[in-house]
Amino acid sequence: MAAVERPVVKPRPIYLNLLAIRQPLPAIVSILHRISGALLFAVGIPLLLWFVQTSLASGAGYATAFGPLSSSLGKLVLLAIAWAYIHHVLAGLRHLALDLHIGTDLAPTRTASALVMVVALLLTLIVAVRLW
Q: pLDDT at residue 123 above 80?
C-alpha cells in the first residue's frame, strides 16, 4: 500500500505576541470586565471589610479609617476601585443583554461597548471631581 501524501501546510507560528494583536473594542471591554472583577475581589472587598470593621469599632477607629482617604494615594486607590465598580456593573449589564440575545449583531455590540467605556470614564471623572 502506498502512503497517502498529505498536503503541505504552512508551519504554525512559534511565538504569538498577544500584545501586538489589535483587539476589537468589545474584546477590550470584556477583558477590562474581568480585570475590574479581579480588582474588586482582590482589593475592593478586603479594603471595604477593613474599613467597615475599623470605622464601627470606635470613634478613634472611625478617624483611623478615614485617615488614608485624605492622602493623594488613598484617593487614587479609591478612584481605581470606583472605576472598577462602575465599569464592572456597566459591562455586566452589557453581557447580560448579550446573554438575552439583545444587540448581538456587530454594530450594536460595538456601540454598546463604546457606550460602556465612555459612561464608565465619565462617571469615574465625576467621582474624581467629588473626591478632590
A: yes
